[in-house]
Amino acid sequence: MQALVKTEAGPGLRLVTVPDPEIGINDVLIRVHKTGICGTDLHIESWDPWAARTIRPPLVVGHEFVGHIVEVGSNVTGFGPGDLVSGEGHVVCGSCRHCLAGQRHLCADTVGLGVGRDGAFAEYVALPMTNIWHHWPGIDEEVAAIFDPFGNAVHTALAFDVHGEDVLISGAGPIGLMAIAVVRHAGARYVAVSEPNAFRRRLAERMGATLVVDPTTRDLSDAQRELGMVEGFDIALEMSGVATALRAAIDNMAHGGRIAVLGIPTGEISLDVNTIVFNQLTLRGIYGRQMYETWYQMAVLVSAGIDIKPVITHRFAYTEFEAAFAAARSGDSGKVIMDWSQS
Ligand code: NAD
Ligand code: ZN
């Protein structure tokens, strides 16, 4: 099959022919239709320090996908050829304390699809049956292709009850953009979005933000004043991974405010712990999605009419992967989709 492979330690990816994945008795083989490019794929492509520490080439990259099942192992029940599916990209151990308790998102021994095992930027991908999400009828395939990052958005946006609350979202990348639609649907009052990129600020408005600010020219206290807020944000979703954004969120919370931290910083961040203590703030780290409560919530949100499609701004054939990665890297994009169905 054709696959996008990190063939050796260093920058770049190569489109090469590799053997089709083999499946075990508990696995499912999927013909990939569409994939989404994630920041993780960009890190692996550019071979930054995280990638150099983490990735062991050769590796098929990619983890956001939709496709149909072509083959199942002899132990597999509940799925069959033809089913339209996506995959939970965190393959868990199944035997640690948290896995045994049904808290699989807390597994300490998680292996990432396209990170620690061969991924989905390929014509075929294999996964354990316990990692398969069977899409509900009628789903748009492009939306299905980005259920993985949509799950990050939903898991973070619903980490705290936003109903009637004033919400700050820092970072309007694909995940922040989807989170806007989720918190609006979940009944937030104001949704203020902070994002330095003008293209993404426009998308944030389209996704239903109440107020969109450029943090390089305007601070959040000013945004609060424009909205007529007096006590600070009740909930913040940190979706940039940038130190100044996390500090700005902490400085602009109401007493008792809650901050869900999804953004992954490149290094340590120093924080004013006094503000966290005296303002009685909660900071909660969010990783991945809940298996499978978040997936269920996503399916329900889509069937209830939430529209995340405007987040998809670019579409390429997989053979144009270089242009696809350049579009994703440019920042003047939302989610970038590659199509694998034409091969
Ligand atoms: P992204 O990099 O496309 O989006 C981040 C956005 O933050 C960009 O649009 C950027 O312009 C903006 N930004 C930069 N400086 C800012 C500032 N000072 N204030 C506000 N915004 C600022 O990433 P994404 O794919 O949307 O993912 C969002 C974040 O979540 C990233 O940090 C990513 O690494 C992380 N992530 C975490 C998980 C997890 O499981 N915890 C999963 C996926 C992604
Ligand atoms: Zn485990």
Write the layout of secondary structure elements.
Layout: E1 2-6, E2 14-17, E3 27-36, H1 39-46, H2 49-54, E4 59-60, E5 64-72, E6 84-87, E7 90-91, H3 97-100, E8 111-112, E9 124-128, E10 132-134, H4 141-145, H5 147-157, E11 167-170, H6 174-185, E12 191-194, H7 198-206, E13 211-213, H8 220-227, E14 233-238, H9 243-251, E15 253-261, H10 273-278, E16 282-285, H11 293-303, E17 312-317, H12 321-330, E18 335-339
Parallel strand pairs: 11-12, 11-14, 12-13, 14-15, 15-16, 17-18
Antiparallel strand pairs: 1-2, 1-4, 3-5, 3-9, 3-18, 5-6, 6-10, 7-8
Helix pairs in contact: 5-6, 5-11
Notes on the structure:
With 343 residues, this protein is α/β, with parallel strands linked by helices. It folds into 2 domains: 2-146 and 308-339, Quinone Oxidoreductase, Chain A, domain 1 (Alpha-Beta Complex); 154-285, Rossmann fold (3-Layer(aba) Sandwich), CATH 3.40.50. Helices cover 29% and strands 25% of the residues. It contains 12 helices and 18 strands. Strands 3, 5, 6, 9, 10, 17 and 18 form a 7-stranded mixed β-sheet that branches. A 6-stranded parallel β-sheet has the order 13-12-11-14-15-16, with helices on both faces. Strand 1 (2-6) and strand 2 form a beta hairpin. Helix 5 (147-157) crosses helix 6 and helix 5 packs across helix 11 (293-303). It starts with a strand and ends with a strand. The structure holds nicotinamide-adenine-dinucleotide (NAD) and zinc ion. Nicotinamide-adenine-dinucleotide binds at residues 39, 152, 170-176, 194-197, 200, 215, 239-242, 244-245, 262-264, 286-288, 331.
